[in-house]
Amino acid sequence: MTAAFVYDAVRTPFGRLGGALAGTRPDDLAAHVLRTLVDRAPALDPARVDEVVLGNANGAGEENRNVARMATLLAGLPTTVPGTTVNRLCGSSLDAVILGSRQIETGEADVLLVGGVESMSRAPWVLPKTERPYPSGDLELVSTTLGWRLVNPRMPAAWTVSLGEATEQLRERFGIGREQQDAFALRSHRLAERAWAEGFYDDLVVPVPGVELDRDEAIRPDTTLERLAGLRTVFRSSGSGGTVTAGNASPLNDGASGAVLGSERAEELLGRPPLARIAGRGVTALDPQMFGFAPVEAANLALRRAGISWGDVAAVELNEAFAVQSLACIDAWGVDPEIVNRHGGALAVGHPLGASGTRVLGTLVRSLERSGGRWGVAALCIGVGQGIAVVVESVTA
Predict the structure, then answer these.
(1) CB 366 within 8 A of CB 10
(2) Where does residue 107 rank: exposed (0-12), middle (13-18), buried (19+ CB within 10 A)?
(3) Above 80 in pLDDT, residue 239?
(4) CA nearest 306: which of 335, 278, 274, 333?
(5) Alpha-carbon distance 55 to 93, whole Å?
(6) Fewest Cβ atoms closer than 10 Å to its Cβ: which of 79, 233, 235, 369?
(7) 329 an active-site residue?
(8) What are the beta bridge partners of residue 386?
(9) Within 13 Å of residue 271, how many CA atoms lie on the same side as its CB?
(10) Choice among 32, 189, 343, 351 that is catalytic
């Protein structure tokens, strides 16, 4: 078996719900990322792309009909390049990386474009069909922006609580207070702001043509602990012990991200050297309401498969769906918090569901390149009780 490498990674700036990217269709966001990846590989004949694999968590709106194939066509790639869309909710685009890397390792492909997209602004309302014809009562539109919808009544109620309520339960289990959460959120905003100011994201983020947005829209550089502490809780009242607020939970966002995966011989096809090797993969599951803790075993499994331990890891990119779940995972791993999300995380940058997996992977690979570190872990929690992780080995050190 050959090795699978990451050759490049880019993303759009992440827009806020109803913000600068709300007027751009998700298939156009994805197409822009794919076109950019091709253009940044100077020797690549687009017809040599073996496949496009994109993640998407919604699939109910303009990204329907296999957004990977739609984006491939919109990006101007040859019609002979196939595309497939995968859905593992928040882990969708990292799942695309896992699927693509396996194709390369088995010798089925030399060059793949992988990534993901989500427009939470443009996610539609859906109207369920009635159980019988000609009903006389009203029907309710259901939002597809986030979370459970059209729940099967056979599902246990404990499993189908909201993501926020599940996070409150996780907080109770591990005793993580409001102050810790707000401090972690403040750190995310400050690190993201500093990373942009220092130029870390200059080569990672490509603005969308026709849109006046050149950096992530949700970062709040002027926020303070006092401002965060003044926000009301969302899922439980503070009097009932609630701690999760809009400030210590990731926002709703729009955006796309992508990466080029390739074999060893892909260096000649692409005209650029690799950045990192895919060294280990892990996907695990637990009770749906404990979804926030699922990255713990996923990352542990990926590390075992890579043949290393946490003591070897120089950088971690953990998607910050909520401050609570991030803190719980960091504590369970026993890693130095300072190596986690050095350039800010989703609490500041944003979390457009299907795009976050290759966002964390791209940030991780570039972080290792800048720091000279060898091993890194990218991980995400996933709604309905799953976790996903990839271990990479930098080849630029």
Answers:
(1) no
(2) exposed
(3) no
(4) 278
(5) 4
(6) 79
(7) no
(8) 285, 382
(9) 11
(10) 351
Q: Quick one: which of 16, 88, 67 has its CA closest to 357?
A: 88
Residue 189 a catalytic site member: no
Say which residue the tokens 């290759």 belong to.
Answer: 358
Residue 1: pLDDT band by 50, 70, 90 thresholds? confident
Euclidean distance between CA atoms 247 and 136, whole angstroms: 43
Judged on CB neighbours under 10 Å (0-12, 13-18, 19+), 1 is: exposed
Tell me: pLDDT of 397 over 80: no
351 touches 118 (CB < 8 A)? no
CA distance 214 to 237: 37
pLDDT digits (tens, 9 = 90+) for 250-293: 999 999 999 999 999 999 999 999 999 999 999 999 999 999 99
Going by their DSSP bridges, the two strands 313-318 and 375-382 should be labelled as: parallel
Token duo for residue 341: 């999300």
Q: How far is CA 228 from CA 14, 169, 181, 183, 239, in A?
A: 22, 21, 10, 9, 17
d(CA 347, CA 356): 12
pLDDT digits 0-9 by tens, 164-201: 999 999 999 999 999 999 999 999 999 999 999 999 99
Mean pLDDT taken over the chain = 97
Alpha-carbon torsion, ordered 39, 45, 50, 54, to 10 deg: 10
pLDDT of residue 241: 85
Known catalytic residue: 351?
yes
Question: How confident is residue 59, by pLDDT bands cut at 50, 70 and 90?
Answer: very high
**CB 213, CB 21: distance < 8 Å:** yes
Give pLDDT, residue 356.
Answer: 98
Distance CA 317, CA 337 (A): 11
pLDDT tens digits for range 136-169? 888 899 999 999 999 999 999 999 999 999 999 9
**Among 32, 90, 189, 343, the one annotated catalytic:** 90
Residue in the structure block whose two tokens are 């009903």: 135
